[in-house]
Every structure is written in structure tokens, then in C-alpha cells.
């Protein structure tokens, strides 16, 4: 089946991708996406889908219909798929062959899914869905091998309704899309880099039907592309209303990601490694983008330097204020309205924190020098937003340790070095409410290899 996608066919293809992306790991879903045409030259994408066999037990849809659905034609069979029932549906292999041509350059990619099994399917809800493995091969451009994936209570009908592929009958409440998601990780390889990804788990994901269909989304994307840097108020309004809708349509339990390890070379062909031990994303709720915590981040360039960070926490962002402003706006949003509501459109960001930072990198201003520093902890907490400005602010830092350079052109640093100081250890706390600080404290400690003044006057150790 050779396809040169029309607008309607693209809509069906996107629907198929999103249906699978809810059930499959992000890495494999991304590999299926048809590239958006670039302004010049426009890429031409053709793909074929091969499904050698479909084993359906007690299915209310025949093999030909199931084969057509899993080949990407979700749109024409959406109602049938939403009512799917079967004891099991097993597809040993799905092979997607994608050919993309940009100018005189052609690239072939093969995406494969192995042993896709849906069990205990009743009225569009599968008791379980499992995928043994998946991956893609783009020749010299790279490849990927993803491990097993599974989820329970996979709501096929809910996914189709969520994206407007079937009529959701005015549903406005969130419903479970899947539970007990597990992804075992995998590997991705590119010419200059290769990565190994750890497992991922999530207990539950809920959603409601979006107020925008795929056709709306595709039409908006094409309008943005055609209008360039000066989109019309109608297009801006549709885009902002779409995002406001999306950010209130989902809810999830916390998700755990087992991190990654990558190795390769940088622009100067020096060995480069970077890794992350783990990542946690707190539960998502309508209007709230959750806290994301990264642990054990390490970046090392051989013969150059390294950066290590124990933890990074990007605190939650409350989008309810901007969402309310957009929901109250007309369908067309012009520049004057944007300027009048600029502050009201600023989300309430709760802040961030980092801990156990260790830096050892070359000094860009001194060819023979290095910047060696560490940070015990830093925290910024923001709250009580008014007109887009946080009126409560608490920030603190401890153990800001900086090694003084031995040969510096800075007069003050040279004076400290002459006193025998080699390291500065500083910290501070600022606690403010409104425009008036409640408390403020700053402390510093200096370290030297040996005191050059009486002990009673020497810096704290």
C-alpha cells in the first residue's frame, strides 16, 4: 500500500499514531510520525505497512478490517474499533517502511513492532496490551531497539474519543485510558552518539475528549505555516484555545523513569558521556504542570571538564490563571488583547532547586585556567502571584564553594591569594513577602592552607 498523504489521509495517519502512542513507548511512537513538510524544499514522504498475519480469537471484527486498522486506516473504522470485542488479538509483526525525499536526498526507515497482543477486549477496552519489542532502522542515520511494553485497562474507545475520531456524546469527565504502564527501556544509536534508556512506570492515566479534532489541528498547523511570522487573530485565537483545552484534559499518577546513559563524541571529536540516574514526574492534573525531579545528572568531556548535579527539581507550574483568561477571550485574539492581558497570561511558576553541584571546566577568559566550584544546595520558592508577579519569595543557598584561581588579573582575587586564601565558601537566605524583605542573611567562609594571622582572627574552617 503506497501512500502520498492527502489532508484527510494525514488525519487518519495521525489518529493511528496517537492511538499507538498512548499504548506504546514514546521512542517507538515518535519513529512513526510522518515528517511535516518544510518550506523549501518540501519533503515527500511515502510509506507502506506490512502485516503478514493477524490472529483474532472471538473478535467481532474480521481479519481484513483489523489489518486495515493496524495499517493506519483508523478513521474509516473508528466506530468499529471503539466497539471492538475479542478474547485476544495477536499481531506477530507490523513493519512500516518510510521513504522520505528532500531535494536529491532520500532516506529509508523501517519501523517494526513485534508480538502486539490485546487480551480480554470488551466494548473497546482491552484488559491488557503487550508489545514484546519495537524499533527502527534508518541506516547510517541511526537505529533503535526498544524492550517490552505493557499496560492494563487500555481504553481504545477513550483514546478515539479523546482525539475526536469518534463521537464522545458530550463527555466532559475524565476517564481512565490505561493503568499499570510498564516499559522496560531500550537503546538508540546515531552516528556520533548512542544511548541506553532505563525502565518507565506509571500507575494510571486519565483523559477527556478534546474540543479540537485532528482535522482542526492539521488545519491550524497548515494555517500557521502559510501565515508565517504574522498569523491572523483567528489563527492565534484557535491556537491559544487549543492549548488551554489540552492543559485541562489530562490527569495522571506519578511517573518514574529509570534514567539513561549516553556516550559519543563532541564537535571536536572528544569522547563525551552524559547520564541521568532517574527522573520522577509528579501527578498531572487539569491546569497544573507537575514537578519534575532529575537525580544523578553527569556530563563529562574527556580532556576538557565535567559537570555533576545530584538533584534538580523543577517545581510545578499553575496554568489555571492564563487558562481562565484564554477561555474568557473571543475566538479571535489580536495583538491588542495579548498586550492588555500580558501579565495575566504569565503562569504561576513555583520555583526550582538544585543540590550537590560539582563543576570543573576550562575558564573561557583564561586559556590556562579552570573554573572549579561546588554548590551544596540552592532553592527558589515563589508564590502568591499577583498580576503575573510572585509576591512571596524565599531563596537560599549553602556551601557555594569556589576555588580561587592561582594566576588572576583581578586585583581583589590577587589580594586574597596573597593572604593565603585558596577557597571561598559562602551561603545566603532571602525571605521576602510583597516588596519588603522579612529576613536576610548572608554568610561567607574563607579557607586557606595555613593561617597567616592569629588563630582568634582566622576564618572559620
Key structural traits:
10 helices, about 450 residues, disordered C terminus
Count of extended strands: 25
Shape: globular
Strand proportion, as a percent range, falls in over 45%
**Radius of gyration over C-alpha positions, nearest whole angstrom:** 27 Å
Strand order of the biggest β-sheet: 5-6-9-10-14-15-13-11-8-7
Q: What is the helix fraction of residues, given as a range?
A: 10-25%
Could you describe the largest sheet, including whether it forms a barrel?
A: 10 strands, antiparallel, barrel
Enumerate how many helices there are, as a single number: 10
Q: What number is the mean pLDDT?
A: 83
Structural class: alpha+beta
Question: Spans with pLDDT under 50 lasting ≥5 residues?
Answer: 1-38, 448-461
Amino-to-carboxy terminus distance: 75 Å
Amino acid at each position: 500500500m503506497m501512500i502520498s498523504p492527502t489532508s484527510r489521509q494525514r488525519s487518519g495517519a495521525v489518529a493511528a499514531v496517537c492511538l499507538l502512542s498512548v499504548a506504546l513507548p514514546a521512542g517507538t511512537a515518535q519513529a512513526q510520525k510522518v515528517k511535516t513538510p518544510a518550506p523549501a524544499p518540501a519533503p515527500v514522504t511515502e510509506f507502506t505497512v506490512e502485516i503478514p498475519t493477524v490472529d483474532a480469537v472471538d473478535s467481532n471484527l474480521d481479519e481484513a478490517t483489523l489489518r486495515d486498522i493496524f495499517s493506519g486506516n483508523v478513521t474509516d473504522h473508528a466506530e468499529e474499533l471503539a466497539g471492538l470485542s475479542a478474547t485476544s488479538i495477536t499481531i506477530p509483526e507490523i513493519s512500516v517502511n518510510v521513504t522520505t525525499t528532500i531535494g536529491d536526498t532520500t532516506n529509508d526507515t523501517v519501523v517494526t513492532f513485534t508480538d502486539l497482543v490485546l487480551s480480554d477486549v470488551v466494548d473497546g477496552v482491552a484488559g491488557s496490551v503487550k508489545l514484546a519489542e519495537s524499533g527502527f532502522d534508518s541506516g547510517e542515520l541511526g537505529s533503535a531497539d526498544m524492550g517490552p511494553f505493557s499496560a492494563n485497562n487500555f481504553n481504545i474507545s477513550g483514546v478515539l474519543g479523546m482525539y475526536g475520531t469518534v463521537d464522545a456524546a458530550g463527555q466532559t469527565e475524565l476517564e481512565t485510558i490505561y493503568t499499570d504502564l510498564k516499559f522496560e527501556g531500550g537503546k538508540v544509536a546515531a552516528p556520533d552518539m548512542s544511548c541506553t534508556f532505563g525502565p518507565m512506570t506509571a500507575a494510571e492515566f486519565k483523559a477527556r475528549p478534546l474540543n479540537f479534532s485532528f482535522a482542526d489541528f492539521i488545519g491550524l498547523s497548515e494555517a500557521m505555516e502559510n501565515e508565517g511570522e504574522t498569523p491572523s487573530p483567528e489563527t492565534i485565537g484557535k491556537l491559544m484555545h487549543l492549548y488551554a483545552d489540552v492543559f485541562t484534559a489530562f490527569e495522571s499518577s506519578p511517573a518514574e523513569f529509570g534514567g539513561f546513559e549516553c556516550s559519543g563524541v563532541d564537535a571536536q571529536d572528544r569522547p563525551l558521556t552524559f547520564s541521568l540516574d532517574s527522573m520522577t514526574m509528579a501527578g498531572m492534573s487539569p491546569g497544573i504542570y507537575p514537578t519534575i525531579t532529575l537525580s544523578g545528572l553527569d556530563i563529562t568531556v574527556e580532556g576538557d571538564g565535567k559537570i555533576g548535579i545530584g538533584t534538580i527539581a523543577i517545581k510545578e507550574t499553575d496554568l489555571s490563571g492564563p487558562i481562565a483568561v484564554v477561555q474568557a477571550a473571543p475566538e479571535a485574539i489580536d495583538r491588542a488583547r495579548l498586550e492588555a492581558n500580558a501579565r495575566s497570561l504569565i503562569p504561576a511558576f513555583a520555583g526550582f532547586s538544585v543540590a550537590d553541584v560539582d563543576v570543573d571546566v576550562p575558564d573561557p577568559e583564561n586559556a590556562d585556567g579552570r573554573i572549579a566550584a561546588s554548590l551544596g544546595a540552592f532553592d527558589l520558592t515563589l508564590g502568591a502571584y499577583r498580576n503575573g508577579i510572585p509576591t512571596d519569595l524565599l531563596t537560599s543557598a549553602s556551601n557555594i564553594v569556589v576555588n580561587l584561581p592561582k594566576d588572576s588579573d583581578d586585583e581583589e582575587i590577587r589580594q586574597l591569594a596573597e593572604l593565603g586564601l585558596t577557597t571561598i565558601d559562602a551561603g545566603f537566605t532571602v525571605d521576602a513577602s510583597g516588596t519588603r524583605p522579612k529576613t536576610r542573611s548572608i554568610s561567607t567562609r574563607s579557607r586557606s592552607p595555613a593561617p597567616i594571622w592569629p588563630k582568634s582572627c582566622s576564618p572559620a574552617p
